[in-house]
Amino acid sequence: MEQKQAIYRILDANLDRAREGLRIIEEWCRFGLNNQTMAESCKQMRQELSQWHSPEIRAARDTVNDVGTTLTHPKEEKRENLDSVLLANLCRIQEALRVLEEYSKLINGKFALTMKQMRYQVYTLESQLMNKNNHQLLSQSSLYLVTSPVENLYEVVESALQGGLKLVQYRHKDETDVVRYEQASKLKQLCHKYNALFLVNDRIDLALAVNADGVHLGQTDLPISVARQLLGKDKIIGKSTTNPEEMKNAIADQVDYIGVGPVYETPTKAGKKAAGLEYVRYAQENASIPWFAIGGIDETNIEDVVRAGATNVAVVRAIMVADNPKEVTQNLLKKLS
């Protein structure tokens, strides 16, 4: 009898834990993403769990004598960003469902099977949720930093992130893979600390190795269909375009965003003729997906680019060689707003 009561206490605690976690996820799907389908999925799972939360299981609750009520961890006291809140609660739900699955096998096989099926449903929800979050963040990012090799790489990027930057692409053409991997790993951690997206230039293998949020590809890189197959549907894929035909093809390939430029001649794209503001105007009228004007843009000319129709821009030197990257980032964001 004591053993049965202990099992009921375990079921009671984890039914509560799973329902609480689902409610936290549901609220973001409802109010943050305005996604009725995902919010309804969470609600249905909460209701399913409630049906298994029988009076007999509830009656076994003994909060006063529960030795776990005072246990805590420093990471539970503070969350770094929204993703950490969502991921912590998704993990909480999954762990609770696994406990429910295993212990309910001792009393009801159908209960156990239901918990197993729900756990896989939550795995799918996690993938959908993080994908939605990343694409929402992409759509809200007006300033995009593409890195260049500088001695104080991490300090520059973090300073820009402190200034409000939400989108970073790691680009280093002339370095060993060992160094690229180390730098990309550290930059991804920095970006996620500030709830910013981290993409890798050209290298799909490197993006996979560090679990980046996506890649940016050029016209001579792997086809988008291959990149999507390798990265999966949840990752962000962007592509450089220099003319209307390339834009049309990129959109047809279902990339998530495009680069439009180079607006001005730039040493980053040595020898490439500037597409000019005319191409920016074309993008403003014809692009059906998010796009970033790029190429030689800085504080001295960004207003011209904005007047031509750009609401989002990508920069390199304007931030990477700035004396105060945070201040420059704030100034650029102000001009874009």
Task: Give a quick rundown of the structure.
Residues 9-127 form the ThiD2 domain. The protein is α/β, with parallel strands linked by helices. It has 2 domains: 2-136; 142-336, Alpha-Beta Barrel (TIM Barrel).
Unreliable stretches (pLDDT < 50, length at least 5) are none
Radius of gyration: 24 Å
Strand content: 5-15%
Series of H and E elements: HHHHHHEHEHEHEHEHEHEHEHH
Q: Can you tell me the CATH architecture of the largest domain? A: Alpha-Beta Barrel
Region (Thiamine-phosphate synthase): 122-337
Cofactor: Mg(2+)
InterPro entries: Aldolase_TIM, ThiamineP_synth_sf, ThiamineP_synth_TenI, ThiD2, TMP_synthase, TMP_synthase_cyanobac_bac
Binding site for Mg(2+): 202, 221
Top keywords for this entry?
alpha/beta, TIM Barrel, 2 domains, eight-stranded parallel beta barrel, 8 strands, 58% helix
What would you say this structure looks like, in words?
Pathway: Cofactor biosynthesis; thiamine diphosphate biosynthesis; thiamine phosphate from 4-amino-2-methyl-5-diphosphomethylpyrimidine and 4-methyl-5-(2-phosphoethyl)-thiazole: step 1/1. This protein starts with a helix and ends with a helix. An 8-stranded parallel barrel has the order 1-2-3-4-5-6-7-8, surrounded by 7 helices. Helix 5 (about 80-105) packs antiparallel against helix 6. It has 2 domains: about 1-135; about 140-335, Alpha-Beta Barrel (TIM Barrel), CATH 3.20.20.70. The chain is α/β, with parallel strands linked by helices and about 325 residues long. The chain has 15 helices and 8 strands.
